[in-house]
Amino acid sequence: MKILIIEDEAPLRESLKSYLRQSGFVCEEAATFREGYKKLLNYEYECVLIDLNLPDGDGLKLVDLAKDSEQPTGIIITSVRDGIEERIQGLDLGADDYLTKPFNLSELNARIRAVLRRKAAIPDQMIRLGEIQIWPDERRVVAAGEELVLTRKEYDILWYLARNKNRVVTKDSIAEHLWGDYMDEAISFDFIYAHMKNLRKKLSETGCGDYIKTVYGIGYKFLVP
Ligand code: CA
């Protein structure tokens, strides 16, 4: 789950980032309108937090841009403006939720999860893919009837492949999904390879079928009938 935090107040941005990372999200940040604009244009996010008051532009324009992305993106406005006008305007433009600053971090977490559920990025029910069952809300996986103990990144890879089942998922997109845009490509490919190896080993030890296919030179495919 990748979240973009667009916020010009550095201390708040930092605390949002570290809190959301601890909660299991991959976070990227933008401190200005320009930076946020560029990231929204070039990358996909499951959710974006948009501060309306940015030094170099109106956050409402970013709401418009985020809404146009190919994958459904959850949009949460964070703002000190408490005016009903802005709230309505933001929601009219397609924002999913609106938090008035200052807000509580666990409240934000709950709102993000609710938005992701609505966008079906985190379904609240169990997903069955062949012999693999995934409970996305709890990050829980059972394969061939056996509970799997996965690391955070192993889980993230499995869930990302499962969400894109029967489609080729490139190493680039896995790297971007897992680490955002701040990891060196060669290193991230090595990490993906290592995590993938462990994930496959854990799956095969349960005796479940081999659903993850390597597409040589490109990436992987989660193949399920
Ligand atoms: Ca601000």
What does this protein structure show overall?
By secondary structure, the protein is of the alpha/beta class. The protein has helices spanning about 10-20, 35-40, 60-65, 85-90, 105-120, 150-165, 170-180, 185-205, and strands at about 1-5, 25-30, 45-50, 55, 55-60, 75-80, 95-100, 125-130, 130-135, 140-145, 145-150, 170, 210-215, 220. The chain has a five-stranded parallel beta sheet, with helices on both faces. Strands 8-9-10-11 form a four-stranded antiparallel beta sheet, covered by helices on one side. The chain has a three-stranded antiparallel beta sheet with strand order 12-14-13. α2 (about 35-40) runs parallel beside α3 (about 60-65) and α7 crosses α8. It is elongated and about 55 Å long. The protein binds calcium ion.
Can you give me a brief rundown of this structure?
This protein has helices at residues 10-22, 33-42, 59-67, 84-92, 105-118, 152-163, 171-179, 185-205, and strands at residues 2-6, 26-30, 47-51, 53-54, 57-58, 74-79, 97-100, 127-129, 132-135, 140-143, 146-148, 168-170, 212-215, 219-222. With 225 residues, it is of the alpha/beta class.
Task: Please identify the structural class as seen in this structure.
Answer: alpha/beta
Q: Tell me roughly what share of residues is in helical segments.
A: 40-55%
Main-sheet strand order equals: 2-1-3-6-7
Distance between the termini: 25 Å
Number of strands: 14
Tell me the domain tally: 2
Shape: elongated
Briefly, what CATH class of the largest domain? Alpha Beta
Major sheet characteristics: 5 strands, parallel
